[in-house]
Amino acid sequence: MTPAPRRGPVKVLIVDDSEASRSAIEAMLAERPGLSVVGHASDGEEALRAAVRLAPDLVVLDLEMPRMDGFTFLRLLMAQRPVPVVVVSAQSQRQDVFKALELGALDFVAKPEARTPLEEIRAELVEKC
Hints:
- 39% of the residues lie in helices and 20% in strands.
- It is α/β, with parallel strands linked by helices and 129 residues long.
- Helix 1 links the parallel strand 1 and strand 2.
- The longest helix is centred in the N-terminal third of the chain and has 12 residues.
- It is globular, with a radius of gyration of 14 Å.
- The two termini are 23 Å apart.
C-alpha cells in the first residue's frame, strides 16, 4: 500500500532549552522548501503540550533540558503521540545516541562543540529532516 501524497509542508516542532539554538535551527529549516516550523518548546513538559496542540509531523529535539529532559520527553511522546524525531544534541556519546534511538528517535545529529557555530550542522540536519 502506497502512502497518500503529502499535502502542504512538513510541520516541525523545535524543542531546545537554548533560545539561540532554537532560532538557529529554525533559520536552517526555513531555507528548505517543504518544511514549516510550527512551534518551539524550551523543555519536555512544554514540548508535550505543544505536540498535542500542534500535531507536528516531525520533532527536532535536544536531550539536555530543565524540568523534563529529552529522553523522558521522547519516551512519553512515543507512548502518547508517536511522531518522527530527529535528536540534535551535544550529548552525543555512543550510549546517548543508542538510548535515543531505542526510545524511538529516527536519527541523531551531534551539536558542534562550544564556540563552534551551530551552522556547522546545517547540511546534515536539513538532509535528515
